[in-house]
Amino acid sequence: MDVDVARFLRYLEHERRLSPRTLVSYRKDLTDLCAFLDEHQGGGTWEWSGIDRLDLRSFMGWCGRKGLGRRTVARKISAIRSFYRFLNLEERIPVDPTRALRTPKLPKKLPAYASEADLRAVFAIAESRAAANTPAGTRNLVILELLYGSGLRLAELQGLDVSDLDLRRKQLKVLGKGRKERIVPLTGAADRALGRYLLRREELLQRLGLSDETAVLLNPKGRRLSQRSVQKIVRRLLDDAAAGEGLTVHSLRHSFATHLLDAGADLMAVKELLGHVSLSTTQIYTHTSKERLRKVYRDAHPRS
After folding, report:
1. 276: alpha, beta or left? (left if phi > 0; alpha if psi -120 to 50)
2. Among all residues, which ones are annotated catalytic?
3. What is the pLDDT of residues 165-208, one digit of tens each?
4. What CATH number does the domain containing 42 carry?
5. Which of 19, 76, 245, 258 is deepest in the core (most CB within 10 A)?
6. Number of structural domains, the chain?
7. Which of 256-275 are b and which e, b meaning 16 or more Cβ less than 10 Å from the residue's Cβ?
């Protein structure tokens, strides 16, 4: 691996404390850039200080010829920008060529979300199964309550430990992107679901003779539930309730934000609850709400 790329990745891991999955993406994007530059320079030697905006535009064209979509190319350019900012701060290059580079224009895609009626049907099924008081049934209801009730990301939910729960204050601590901690509130329904599930969780651990597991969500073997398992559980519940095609675990987070804004919640408050760094990331949910208002107008106004 290129020496500067390796140093940059160590910086992301130890200084920025990015997740292993994010580091893999950065590594892949910068490895692709190095492969292109080797080819572009005809196999000759090259230096980062000698790469200009036209070389990077050629890289974008190279990605397009390989069949990569605009969104993927935009992600690679974002990684390259971060890398060049690092090189510039480290005084490894005199000029940052990415400053004059335009990112591919991406179509605005409104996030998928479930209606309140659909979610009532989903929760009705989950609550009926939780009533059997099994570890799986009570756990699956907790999954829904935290994804929709607190707007958690999949990784945040899967990484929850019992020590992160503060049921007395009805809140929990989550580790978000960039390993940033935030406190999010628990709904009354989530608090009740957790209270019931934690009893079943303790019974499961005692039965298996385990005492060292810290995770909130456990599989039948008493170990931390995987992200893939969470996805399958939610997908099955959505399918059983016929809540609509194309909805995923992340759709519950989108629904959380959309329903709050539809009810008049402050945009800055929703931003903090979601753990977004930039307000512009949260603003996409206002577009979703506007689309809903337009539909109501078109369907209801006699002259629409």
Report:
1. beta
2. 153, 177, 250, 253, 276, 285
3. 999 999 999 988 877 889 999 999 999 999 999 999 999 999 99
4. 1.10.150.130
5. 258
6. 2
7. bbbbbbeeeeeeeebbebbb
